[in-house]
Write a structure and sequence with these properties.
37% of the residues lie in helices and 18% in strands. It is α/β, with parallel strands linked by helices and 331 residues long. The strands form two sheets. The chain has an eight-stranded mixed beta sheet, sandwiched between helices. A four-stranded mixed beta sheet has the order 5-12-7-8. Helix 6 (188-200) runs parallel beside helix 7.
Length: 331
C-alpha cells in the first residue's frame, strides 16, 4: 500500500488577497483534524500587496508542513499547476484564499474517503455564499439526501453537477489527470471536473461540511462578461470541448455532462447584450452561432429542466436544435 507523508495537501493560489487571507488560513488551522498531517502549498502568483509577505510569515510559524512558491503573475490555473508537482498528501484540495472552510470539513472528508476507498475520485461539500451575496449555491441539490456516493450514470442523477474545484477534494490519482487551462476564464474548474468525473462516473458528497465562498464584486467570475475570452474562446475551450471530449473518449455524451454544460450555458442565454467594445459584429455573429449550435448535443428534457432561463429561451434553444417550431401540447 502506498504511503503518504500527509493526509491532505492544500494548494492555495494567492493573488492580492491581503484583506482576506488571514481569515481563510485561520479556518484551516482551526480544523478538527491533526494539522500536522496537512501540507500547505502557498503559491504567491505575483501579488503586489502584502499577500506574499503573509505567506512567508505563515511558513515561519508552520515550517515543517508549509511550502511557499513565489512566481510571476500567470493566473489561477498556472498557480495551481505550480503546486501540483510537490504534493505529498493522499488527498488534495485547491482552496481559494478568500474563502472559509467549516471546522469539521477535513475530518468529515477524510473519513468519507477512507470509508468509500476506490468508489470515487472526488468528494464535494456544499457551497454557501457570503460577502456581497449570501445564500446557498444552486447546485447544492446533490446534498439533499445526505452523504453518499452518487452514480452519475443513472438517469435519475442527471441533474447532479459539480463544477467547482475549490469545494471538492481529490485523490492523487485524480490530480494526475489535471492540466488547468490558462486560455479561458471561469471554466478552468469545470474542465477538470468533467475529465475526472468521466473516469468512474461517480461523485462523493459530504453533506455535514461547508465551503463558504466569498462573493466579491471584483472577482474574476463577476467581471467575466467584460472579457473577450468569456465568449467564443469560452465556448470552444469548455462547452464544445466537453461534448467532443466525451464523444472521443466514450462515443456518447453522458447526461450529467449535458446537464453541466447546459446549466453553465444558462448564464449566456440570459445575457441580453454584450458590452460595447468586447466583440466586433463578425465575432458577435460567430459567438451566437456557436452558442446555439450546442443545442444539438443536449437532450430535450435536459434543456427543459433548466431553472434559470425562461420558457421562451428554452423554446428558442430547441428551435435551433431542430430548425422547427415546437408543437404545443395542452393537457
Amino acid at each position: 500500500m502506498e504511503q503518504y507523508k500527509y493526509d491532505f495537501s492544500i494548494i492555495i493560489s494567492v493573488f492580492n488577497v491581503e484583506e482576506y487571507i488571514e481569515e481563510a488560513l485561520e479556518s484551516l488551522l482551526k480544523q478538527d483534524f491533526n494539522m500536522a498531517r496537512v501540507q500547505f502549498i502557498l503559491v504567491d502568483d505575483g501579488s503586489t500587496d502584502g499577500s506574499g509577505k503573509y505567506c512567508d510569515d505563515f511558513k515561519k510559524k508552520h515550517y515543517e508542513n508549509t511550502i511557499v512558491i513565489h512566481k510571476e503573475n500567470g493566473g489561477l490555473s498556472s498557480a495551481r499547476m505550480a503546486g501540483i508537482p510537490i504534493l505529498a498528501g493522499k488527498y488534495v484540495s485547491f482552496f481559494d484564499p478568500d474563502d472559509i472552510l467549516s471546522s469539521d470539513t477535513l475530518k468529515s472528508v477524510f473519513s468519507f474517503f477512507e470509508e468509500h476507498e476506490g468508489e470515487t475520485e472526488v468528494v464535494a461539500i456544499p457551497i454557501q455564499f457570503f460577502g456581497d451575496l449570501s445564500g446557498a449555491h444552486p447546485l447544492n441539490n446533490k446534498f439533499e439526501r445526505g452523504s453518499r456516493v452518487i452514480d452519475l450514470s443513472v438517469k435519475g442523477n442527471t441533474n447532479i453537477s459539480q463544477m467547482s474545484v475549490a469545494s471538492a477534494f481529490f485523490t492523487r490519482r485524480a490530480v494526475a489527470l489535471m492540466n488547468f487551462d490558462t486560455e479561458i476564464v471561469t471554466a478552468e474548474d469545470a474542465i477538470e471536473m468533467v475529465k475526472i468525473l468521466l473516469e468512474k462516473q461517480t461523485l462523493g458528497v459530504v453533506a455535514n461540511a461547508t465551503y463558504y465562498y466569498r462573493k466579491r464584486k471584483t472577482s474574476n467570475v463577476g467581471g467575466a462578461k467584460y472579457k473577450k475570452n468569456w465568449y467564443i474562446a469560452y465556448l470552444e475551450h469548455f462547452s464544445e470541448w466537453a461534448f467532443k471530449y466525451c464523444l472521443q473518449k466514450l462515443g456518447y455524451i453522458p447526461r450529467f455532462v449535458q446537464y453541466t454544460v447546459m446549466y453553465d450555458l444558462q448564464w449566456k442565454l440570459l445575457q441580453q447584450h454584450i458590452p460595447e467594445g468586447i466583440l466586433d459584429e463578425q465575432e458577435k455573429q460567430t459567438y451566437q452561432k456557436k452558442l446555439y449550435s450546442l443545442a444539438q448535443y443536449v437532450d430535450d428534457d435536459i434543456i427543459l429542466q433548466q431553472k434559470h432561463i425562461f420558457i421562451e429561451q428554452k423554446i428558442f434553444f430547441l428551435y435551433n436544435k431542430y430548425k422547427l417550431n415546437p408543437n404545443i401540447i395542452s393537457n
